User: What shape does this take?
Amino acid sequence: MRKKKSLREEFYCAGRLRSCPVYDLHGHMGPVSGIHLPDCQVEAMVRGMKKAGVAKLIFSHHAALMAPDIGNQASEAAVRKYPDFFRAYLAFNPHYPEIFQQEISSWDNKIFAGLKFLADYHRVSVADERYKIAWEFAEVRKLPVLLHTWGGSSYDGPEQIRQVASRYPDCPMLLGHSCHGEWKKAISLVREFPNIYLELCAVLDERGILEQLVEAVGSERIVFGTDFPWFSYSYYIGAVLDARITEEERRRIFSENAERIMSGIKR
Amino acid sequence: MKDLVIWDANIVFGRSFSRCWEPITSTRQLLQEMDRYGIEKVLLWHIAQLEYSASEGNELVSKLVRKEKRLAGCWSLLPPITGEMESNFLEKMEENNIVALRLFPEQHRFLLRRRVLSPFFDEVVKRRVPVILSVKWGLSWTTIYDFLEDYPELSCILCDIGIWGTNRYTWPLLSSFPRVFLESSLLSLTAGALEATVRKFGAGRVIFGSGFPERYVDAAILDLVHAQLSTEEKKTIAWENLKKLCSWVKL
Assistant: This one.
């Protein structure tokens, strides 16, 4: 009888995982000031996703995060054009609550899958009163919130996350970058709060961290994310395939956890 | 799983004093890992060259690579004026299967300038010994630019170029200095950057490296294997460029 290929063998041979859909829960789109991103336009991103067999990307357009005068309409336009590939996080900027009020008045579940907070850049703590309007909107609807989180940050470090995690227990919180560098505190948060998940963007360029996270909290609370079009799918999927974890754990990270968190994420 | 021959230009051996990563601690272990990933040959250095002593670390590298054909080594260089390096340095490189140099000016506390390194370094350039500069270890882009202005003919591999896309730093160097090469591991990290760099400068300017054991080897290999490049371009990056660079060396 022919032996079943491992996921690693599958990806080496085909450049995609035919037996395991990959959901990327942390993406962006469009240009960004500090980096030349060769494949950041929507068509190039769709090509990149098709090539690597990525089933769906949940993203926030850089304009939605960095250019309030353009805002979330950039994300919306991309989802409308390629609904099979994308859903968006509605980016919330605490300096412009009036824009958020206006945008949520026409909230469309087919376009948006959750909210995105980028507190380190907007320089307001996620535990600050100014985030309340967005947290409450997400809490009531049980919407996932993807937060940029970074070790040592006074805006979205582990301490700030601890404060909001207990305040909004019905809101699934995806810790983008897993409180980068403060891995033990990220692990503690997962153990303490059932609504917290770790996300792998900027984690996988360092060998061994994923293994530590899986060993400490299990694979059920870890989701795959890439910052795409910042990071390459082949590189990031390759890192998960190279990590010393089991095939079941890989499948949870690539697919099953995202499916559980994001209802309706499938094409 | 793949047909591509691979030579890896960026592997560090040994235990770091801060245990930043799970180390490779024996030749046997390294060869096993190379077999797992299908890597035919590696160009390695030892962490002790950086963290302890350049000359003692060089000796550790020599011991590793002297008898194993699949391994080649890098020695670390200090400013000649303090007399800390071996006499007949370049000749001894050849005896010890050392084919490249690594410089760590921040940790070894010297300046990457002609005033510091010449006339010895003129000989390094003349003999076309590749010099590997790792951006990871505190080298600023300004320092790299100034250094290459001092030695425009230098064969230089820029490695560990940074995790946040660095094309705006690296492309002007590729454009200005024909013997500058990019090690691929962190170039591959940015979506489409490997392909974009090859489209602009050709496959002859990128050299495969993994950054193992600090980074995942499959990640770097898979980005190359499945890049939107021709088979010839992939071969050029995977091993031919490093082989060519080593063949230029006249020790």
Q: What stands out?
A: Residues 13 and 198 of chain A are 29 Å apart (CA to CA). Chain A touches chain B through 37 residues (CB under 8 Å). Strands of chain A lie at 22-27, 54-59, 86-92, 112-117, 145-150, 173-180, 196-199, 222-223.
